Amino acid sequence: MATLSDDTLRKILVQIQQTAVQSQRALNISRQQIAAKERERRILQLTIEEITSLQEDVNLYKGVGKMFLQVPRPAMERDLKAEEKELTEDIKNLEKKSKYLEKQFNDAQAQLRDIFHSAPNQ
Fold first, then answer.
1. Are the C-beta atoms of 41 and 91 separated by less than 8 Å?
2. Are 20 and 108 in contact (CB under 8 A)?
3. Residue 57, CB half-sphere, CA atoms under 13 Å: how many?
4. What is the predicted pLDDT for the residue at 107?
5. pLDDT tens column, 1-34
6. What pLDDT band is residue 117 in, cutting at 50, 70 and 90?
7. pTM of the model
8. Distance (Å, whole) CA 1 – CA 95
């Protein structure tokens, strides 16, 4: 490390710091997206539970823009379950992304620690 010029070392440090900051920001955004998707999924689950607890002859309506359309019960349940499945997949993908970003952030921090610990005391 003594063979690297100060300018080169500074560029490397800046690059590692930028990677750490970008990873931390992306990780926070990813966690917020996971929380939002979890809330959406929970609302869908509650809606499905509510619909299944209703009698079979109850009319169900779905909001479309500014109006409501009457929808058959099986179609409504199928749509809600499909939406729940899609949200679950989105959450899984976001969790994978979060793990990757967390690893990237931890690696950048470890690199910075290694550089500062191996630097000669001045």
1. yes
2. yes
3. 0
4. 93
5. 456 677 888 888 899 999 999 999 999 999 999 9
6. confident
7. 0.79
8. 37
Which comes out higher in pLDDT, residue 39 or 7?
39
For 122, the 3-state DSSP assignment is: coil
Supply the pLDDT for residue 7.
Answer: 83
- Our CA dihedral for 44, 47, 49, 50, rounded to 10 degrees, sits at 180
Query: What is the C-alpha separation between 45 and 49, in angstroms, rounded?
Result: 6
CA–CA distances in Å: residue 1 to residues 4, 6, 16, 54? 6, 10, 16, 71
The alpha carbon of residue 114 and the mean position of all alpha carbons in its chain are separated, in whole angstroms, by 30
Q: Are 98 and 34 contacting, i.e. CB atoms less than 8 angstroms apart?
A: yes
In whole angstroms, give the CA distance from residue 106 to residue 8: 23
